[in-house]
């Protein structure tokens, strides 16, 4: 069965779905601000850790690796459905969502999903359910001591048709309590630009960080700190080269970046009075227009 046949039949299976998604795709600030997903397309089997300014994060892989920035698309889509549902019901919160996979592809810019796209979608569900996260980040003033997964449950089943081919059923997922509290209580929700889904993993992280920090003015971050916030494991010289290329191409929606060398006003000197040390590399993120810092609201 090809992807077009799957798309045509999925919508007839359930009388009610939480899809389609109307309006913009949206994300929550905590999953935009911190490195919670692997930047690599290949399975990352090594654990990830992050510790800065009192925030601690530990991420353990499933048998198929840590959830990636491309897997994150599914999570963002489900969070968008949650925001939409809260707006419809006037604040009523649910954590289980049933949706048409083809609507996910539509929302994330895949016009004609292939069999490989559907295979990757199923793989993403598995990693989002299997990846284990432990963090001291509180959501809704509530902390979580143990590990949790992005999806407490994820079901993607098929049904064999009379012609003997497998037909993909609507997908059912259950969001973890940590995310439900983040969306429903903290309400730090931001719109994603449609072109976000055309970006590479580092560009996606830059866009998310700029969305969190820029508002209406430029924001400066030391290269080493930015690398940690992105979740990069590359040497700083490699990351610096990557960022310079991204800055030159200037394809990131809503924001631009600049890699800048800053000489300290009071340079360090050795015992003989000679200047020592190198200029500090900083990355400047700035909005391309004044409208990008506007935050979305749950009722929008």
Quick overview of this protein structure:
The chain is α+β, with helices and mostly antiparallel strands and 300 residues long. It has helices spanning 3-10, 29-33, 72-89, 101-107, 115-130, 177-186, 201-213, 223-230, 236-249; strands at 26-28, 48-52, 55-60, 96-99, 132-135, 151-155, 158-160, 166-168, 171-175, 189-191, 219-222, 255-262, 280-287. The protein has two domains: 1-192, no CATH class; 200-293, Arc Repressor Mutant, subunit A.
SSE diagram, text form:
Layout: H1 3-10, E1 26-28, H2 29-33, E2 48-52, E3 55-60, H3 72-89, E4 96-99, H4 101-107, H5 115-130, E5 132-135, E6 151-155, E7 158-160, E8 166-168, E9 171-175, H6 177-186, E10 189-191, H7 201-213, E11 219-222, H8 223-230, H9 236-249, E12 255-262, E13 280-287
Antiparallel strand pairs: 1-10, 2-3, 3-5, 4-9, 6-9, 7-8, 11-13, 12-13
């Amino acid at each position: 069965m090809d992807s077009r046949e799957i798309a045509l039949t999925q919508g007839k299976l359930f009388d009610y779905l939480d899809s389609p998604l109307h309006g913009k795709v949206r994300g929550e600030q905590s999953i935009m601000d911190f490195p919670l997903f692997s930047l690599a397309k290949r399975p990352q089997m090594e654990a990830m850790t992050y510790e800065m300014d009192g925030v601690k994060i530990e991420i353990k892989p499933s048998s198929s690796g840590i959830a990636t920035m491309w897997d994150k698309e599914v999570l963002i889509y489900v969070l968008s459905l949650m925001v939409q549902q809260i707006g419809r019901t006037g604040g009523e919160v649910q954590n289980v969502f049933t949706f048409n996979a083809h609507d996910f592809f539509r929302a994330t810019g895949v016009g004609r999903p292939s069999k490989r796209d559907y295979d990757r979608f199923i793989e993403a569900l598995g990693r989002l359910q299997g990846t284990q996260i432990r963090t001291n980040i509180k959501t809704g003033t509530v902390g979580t001591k143990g590990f949790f997964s992005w999806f407490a449950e994820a079901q993607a089943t098929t049904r064999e048709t009379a012609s003997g081919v497998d037909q993909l059923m609507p997908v059912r997922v259950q969001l973890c309590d940590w995310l439900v509290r983040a969306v429903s209580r903290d309400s730090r929700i931001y719109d994603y630009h449609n072109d976000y889904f055309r970006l590479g993993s580092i560009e996606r992280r830059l866009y998310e960080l700029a969305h969190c920090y820029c508002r209406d003015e430029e924001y400066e971050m030391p290269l080493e700190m930015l690398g940690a916030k992105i979740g990069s494991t590359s040497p700083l010289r490699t990351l610096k080269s990557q960022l310079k290329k991204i800055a030159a191409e200037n394809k990131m929606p809503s924001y631009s970046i600049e890699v800048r060398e800053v000489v300290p006003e009071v340079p360090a000197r050795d015992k003989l009075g000679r200047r020592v040390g190198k200029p500090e590399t900083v990355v400047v993120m700035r909005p391309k227009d004044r409208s990008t810092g506007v935050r979305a609201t749950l009722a929008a």
